[in-house]
Amino acid sequence: MKPPATINPGDIFELDGESGPVLVQLTHRHGTSSDVVRVLPRGDARDLEAVARQEALMVAMVPLSGAIESGRLKARRLGSAAIPEAARAFPTFRMAIRDKKDGVRGDVAYWWFWDGEGLVYSADPPAESEHMPYREVLSVDEFLRRARQLMSEIG
Q1: How much of the chain exceeds pLDDT 70, in percent?
Q2: Is residue 54 part of a domain?
Q3: How many domains does the chain have?
Q4: How would you classify the pairing of strands 35-40 and 104-114?
Q5: CA distance 124 to 126
Q6: pTM of the prediction?
Q7: 50/122 same-domain check
Q8: Strands (DSSP E) along the chain, which ranges?
Q9: 94: left (phi > 0), else alpha (psi -120 to 50), else beta?
Q10: Which of 60, 69, 86, 145 has its CA 20 to 30 A from that of 133?
């Protein structure tokens, strides 16, 4: 597959997966980090607006643009759709900071939260933070593994 000339927020791609296609929507391109994408449930590619309105199965940072442009990832651009209101702001990612004693990782001491610009921390985070994605840039292979797992869970 020939990669698209430009990849922009709102673009929806069908990624080749061993267990079937994985649909993703690029929501953000971060200058110093990685692309942010939403993994979407399967839907009718003739109605990308409806596909995009679905709740994401996962939000992740992955070098999608680079992988597609270099040809390392087989992807087909289906088109573009409006990013849902709830996904337009850069998501806040979380990262656990653990106690370490004698070289052994222990319990979570506090959490870092990153909004794409700055970091804040909390030893007592709000309950809604449990649903925030982890701050990690996934390799393409790990991203596809996790996306396939989610896709298999929904059938």
Answers
A1: 94
A2: yes
A3: 2
A4: unpaired
A5: 7
A6: 0.85
A7: no
A8: 11-15, 22-29, 35-40, 58-62, 75-80, 93-101, 104-114, 119-122
A9: beta
A10: 69
